[in-house]
Amino acid sequence: MPDQTFPLRKSQLWRTLFRSKMGILxxxxxxxxxxxxxxxxxxxxxxxxxxxxxxxxxxxxxxxIRHWLGTDDTGKDVFSAVIYGARVSLLVGFAASIIIVxxxxxxxxxxxxxxxxxxxxxxxxxxxxxVIPSLPLMLVIIAVAGRGLTNIILVIGLLYxxxxxRVVRSQVISIKERPFILRAHAIGVSPFRIATYHILPQxxxxxFAEVVLDVSYAIxxxxxxxxxxxGDPTIISWGSMINRAFLRGAVTKGAWWYxxxxxxxxxxxxxxxxxxxxxxxxxxNPRLRTHHLFDEHKMVARARLAVNVDVSTEKVV
Length: 317
Prior knowledge:
MetI-like fold, elongated
């Protein structure tokens, strides 16, 4: 039986997660936004994809009873657009993270388990992609390949897998030298079965924690591309809303309700994912809890213990 590198079972994981204030806050924020993306359009007061019949007075209306977050430059409801935009932003985030996990975990496992020249070649390729500035490269690729939601997902997934590969490689290198892996080698278990049955379950918690953070990176990347005008013009996302607001003079007209809500939605889901990802990392790697912070009570207790030991030692002497 393989060693339990991460002794937390599913029930223990959830109990530990919900004891963390950061974990509860992040989970609640993310779950709320997912519910908005799934069921919000059913309750949205208007359909932002329809072309409404508007008058001049309907353009850039401030928040009111009919339009809770006002209207945009075409008289459409901003609140409904924010709700519909949640679907696109979360879809890009989760779809791109799947590519990141599949590509990064596969390359990391092959490099870490094989070692030697295979490890060197794969890691040099990873380093070469890692040092290239991601945003300028994404701009060039999207400009050449064309705008579209599928292209955005592919570009983000194919450029952000490098950190995942290095994290998985370091975990595999550590795990493959453990006794249960050596025993599996000794009894003739195939390398593929060792990698998939013995090593992969040990790194799944780390993968899960990293995926949560990768989703936030993907959402911010899509928002950046859309804000720069390289998103899909036929769909509504938070980044494209901010782009349209700036292009159509919302700032000069003082229409803050067209800019602030999608920006707050981006901040909300990004902070929720960050809180949840950090809480999961602390659960799976307890040493992170004291990496930058320390518990004052524990430090005082250790200091008193050290003093008592010194005093008792002097008495014995």
